[in-house]
Amino acid sequence: MTKTLIFGHKSPDTDTICSALVYADLKNALGVDAKPARLGEVNAETQFALDHFGAEAPEYVERVDDEIDNVILVDHNEFQQSVDNISDVRITEVIDHHKVSNFETKEPLYFRAEPVGCTATILNKIFKENEVIVSKENAGLMLSAIISDSLLLKSPTCTAEDREAAHELAEIAGVDLETYGLEMLKAGADLSDQTALDLVTMDAKEFTMGDANVQIAQVNAVDTNQVYASQDSIEKEIEKLINDKNLDLFLFVVTDILENDSDVLAMGQAKDNVEKAFDVKLDDRNRALLKGVVSRKKQIVTNLSEQF
Amino acid sequence: MTKTLIFGHKSPDTDTICSALVYADLKNALGVDAKPARLGEVNAETQFALDHFGAEAPEYVERVDDEIDNVILVDHNEFQQSVDNISDVRITEVIDHHKVSNFETKEPLYFRAEPVGCTATILNKIFKENEVIVSKENAGLMLSAIISDSLLLKSPTCTAEDREAAHELAEIAGVDLETYGLEMLKAGADLSDQTALDLVTMDAKEFTMGDANVQIAQVNAVDTNQVYASQDSIEKEIEKLINDKNLDLFLFVVTDILENDSDVLAMGQAKDNVEKAFDVKLDDRNRALLKGVVSRKKQIVTNLSEQF
């Protein structure tokens, strides 16, 4: 039987982890020998969701082993966000909701990207298309992914389809959407145990914009000032990353989940592009408040890409 | 209302033209202001299909006008096969059945590629998903696309889904699959009116393989020797193309639709790769018979790509 490995992006978030788990379960129900994997540490928000619905985190992999025949990517398609040996493996499927970039295959594949707020929203449709019943656990995991990606349905990336799926899945999972959602987000926003290195790497993604290498890290917080209490240490970690990875820009985004704003820190030789992209001035500590900005994908990457 | 333009690849074939027409019709039924377009001349096979089902060829466009807000790509995704100003337009959808390569967007989109033999097979599913009735004309056009891409269901690219769709659509279109199919293929294989330049450009696609620029042109024929009666002129046209486009390899593929073989002519500094990829020797006129090879996508591009 063909072995298939299913995983999301590096610096995994709740959608990436839950979508890998749920899609592997669906594939198994359809008779495919698939197993989920993760490319990094499980964050506190995701761990809360896993614990709440009695699920275990998928196995960590550093690279795809030779015994694996096929891989399925969920929640990403850009190779620089994927496993290191992605260019050497056979990708048979992609289920994603991001822009398409730096992705290619030698053969035709099943590639399904939709402009919705969350991969799990697409997975919920695939369950229906295949007439497979959604279990309580899978409903809870997909719900958690949608809450996470949409900041409890408040992000501009959230579509009518995401909202509908969230309400439907909350019912199957047997939880109150608002209550569970805020609890989960707060679990993720508890950054008290995180080191500066954790903060700048826990949900970081790399992008190629024009000729520039850009890394954007995002954390959710209830109190952004508490995060920046350690700004000196954060800056040191970012400086190291800029040097190690030859980055033109590192943007550290601290999103206030109650106010729905982001307090960002921009470093690197291309930091002026942040000022231009969002029509703000960085203060003397290289920070700026981006009012109403909560979505890396829809508000930050799009605007920054145009600037480069 | 947002204007959307729908088109397939350059050197259009029957799937590209028919899918653009049919998908525009479906979009209109769904309330989207979409119109079909083509990026090149309609070939004899496609014209036969259009005439048979009373359809008109879509309008020719050289580039996407400023008044167009969105474009939808059918039957291709690689930018070098698309309209010249593809990098400047907003792509909102892709419906395709090819490998993904040299494609990128700034924003999330609806990207649907499936490893089936024909774009029209996917469109037939989209009609069902949206509960829109397939008209006799649209059924005929989608059927023609499937027959064309699958060489009457004989190509190795043809999947069970393509076969099922073809039989279903033949019934709606009111034609006998075998009879109509052979008539249509023969109309396309009548190359008597074509100049050497026509032959090498009528269904030519460019590919980037490793660092090499490769162009692969394919024609269907009932008698391959008749095509090669003008090999001298064909070679001259290919030489010009190699120089103009700085190609490393030009592969001219003449597919015998009755025998299901291909008689190929390889030119350019990388022509040795053809010998290695297919384990054949090019004769003193740079030709070789590839037994059982009829599919550019599944048999030729895949094998050649590995060689480069």
TrEMBL record, chains A, B:
It is found in: Cytoplasm. Its EC number is 3.6.1.1. Residues 181-308 form the DHHA2 domain. The keyword Metal-binding applies. Its main location: cytoplasm. Keywords: Cytoplasm, Hydrolase, Manganese, Metal-binding. It catalyses: diphosphate + H2O = 2 phosphate + H(+). Mn(2+) 2 binds at residues 15, 75, 97, 149. One of its GO terms (cellular component) is cytoplasm. GO terms for molecular function: inorganic diphosphate phosphatase activity; manganese ion binding. This is Probable manganese-dependent inorganic pyrophosphatase. It comes from Lentibacillus persicus. The gene is ppaC.
